[in-house]
Design goal:
Elements: H1 4-16, H2 20-33, H3 38-50, H4 54-71, H5 74-90, H6 94-105, H7 110-128, E1 198-199, E2 206-211, E3 215-221, E4 231-234, E5 239-244, E6 250-255, E7 262-271, E8 276-282, H8 328-339, H9 360-370, H10 374-386, H11 396-399
């Protein structure tokens, strides 16, 4: 008898290894046996999202919100609302996505909060391009979705079968154990591929890319791709490619987000006898891409981290964030650690910081400041300058009308330069 906890543990490993089809399959098996495991719906939603199955990702995220709400797990409700918002944004329901992000922002902490801010920044850029009466701005969803949680299914059922044999004594009974097939979970999600039905990006297909001043060209070297069964979706910040291979498996290649935005209307692809070629037109001609994929981190300001005092304890610098102060030393360590990851490793995915700088911390702040709006830049520079590098704010409405006080870390004393 399969153990749902064991299946879920294997699914988690597959998710961490970026084998999303395998993760989806294993989580589906686990949920068929324990359909009230909210964390498994949340992780399957992430797997669906990274496989570009956004409707399925939304269905799982809404189940997770519903179940976490029943248990009163505030932080996890926020994490599920975040996933719900991402799926809605990918489906073009921008008003609903913004509604979910606002709910998530009040509940999450740590890297989930950074992720919410990143996705909201991208969402705001998209909504600025919409007309005021565009239907995509409408908010139709409810805070707690009204979903029906599936029932658990029995894994195995014993059925008695009476058989007769030539030499069998009259009245003698023969019993067979006939296993009843295990159905898939009744969750409202799209059909799930089997564990061998798809492979992770780059598993069996070699790919390479190059760039010119105007274009980024991606080539997948694979023969005889059936044009009628291939799906290539090009968006301004993402690309999704899928097609069946001769081996019977499906190839899935997903880039989300790009290193920089592209011009979809002037992008194109070709399916040839020996390769698939995708030409992405840069929205900023002349800008050099350091990689195909970028990060979901939102832009803010380019400032320096305040120096540490000569003590064993690590300072926690004051911040205007509603969640409290931030440990910038820990952030620096996390960024450095991220920069040392091997290419292809995948963790959470949305909060990684990519930079063309040798120092990942400086690269992080440079990237934040570069694309930030004017109010964000002013808030960051004003708060950092007036506080002597001890506070950092991105909220101009909060710091624009008052002086930001110097707030040294515990154990330190603020002094003027002539003291």
């Amino acid at each position: 008898m399969a153990d749902p906890t064991t299946l879920a543990a294997s699914a988690q490993k597959a998710l961490e290894a970026s084998d999303y089809p395998q993760a989806i399959s294993l989580y589906t098996q686990a949920l068929s046996l324990n359909p009230v495991a909210a964390d498994w719906y949340l992780n399957r939603s992430i797997s669906h999202q990274r496989s570009a199955s956004y409707s399925s990702a939304l269905a799982d995220a809404e189940l997770a919100v519903h179940l976490f709400h029943q248990r009163g797990q505030r932080a996890k409700i926020g994490a599920a609302q975040l996933r719900r918002g991402i799926a809605l944004q990918k489906l073009g329901k921008l008003g609903d996505a913004d509604f979910c992000y606002k709910k998530a922002e009040k509940m999450v902490e740590g890297k989930d909060k950074t992720t919410v801010e990143s996705w909201r920044a991208m969402l705001n850029q998209a909504m600025e391009k919409l007309e005021i009466d565009d239907p995509r701005r409408e908010v139709m969803c409810e805070e707690i979705p009204g979903v029906v949680v599936p029932k658990a299914v029995k894994q195995e059922k014993k059925v008695e079968v009476r058989e007769e044999k030539g030499k069998q004594k009259e009245g003698e009974e023969v019993k067979k154990v006939v296993p009843t097939p295990t159905p898939a979970a009744a969750a409202p999600v799209a059909a799930v591929p089997s564990s061998t039905g798809a492979i992770a990006p780059g598993g069996k297909v070699r790919h390479e890319w190059y760039q010119t001043n105007e274009d980024v060209v991606l080539t997948l070297y694979v023969k005889n791709v059936p044009k009628d069964k291939a799906t290539i979706d090009i968006h301004d910040t993402s690309l999704s490619i899928s097609f069946p291979l001769a081996t019977g498996t499906d190839f899935i290649f997903d880039l989300d987000p790009f290193w920089a935005a592209i011009d979809v209307s002037n992008s194109s692809y070709k399916i040839l006898g020996t390769k698939v070629e995708v030409k992405l037109r840069k929205s900023e001609p002349g800008r050099k891409w350091a990689d195909l994929e970028g990060s979901h981190t939102a832009p803010a300001a380019s400032v320096s981290v305040a120096p540490k005092p000569a003590t064993e304890s690590k300072p926690v610098y004051p911040s205007s964030s509603k969640t409290g102060s931030k440990d910038w030393d820990k952030l620096a360590a996390d960024l450095t650690k991220k920069s040392e990851k091997k290419e292809g490793e995948d963790g959470e995915g949305e909060d990684g910081y990519d930079s063309d700088e040798a120092d990942p911390v400086n690269g992080f702040f440079k990237k934040l400041y570069k694309d930030a709006d004017e109010d964000t830049r002013r808030a960051m520079m004003k708060s950092f300058t007036e506080s002597g590098g001890t506070a950092l704010s991105t909220n101009w409405a909060e710091v624009g009308s008052k002086k930001v006080e110097i707030s040294p870390p515990d154990g330190m004393t603020a002094k003027s330069w002539n003291e």
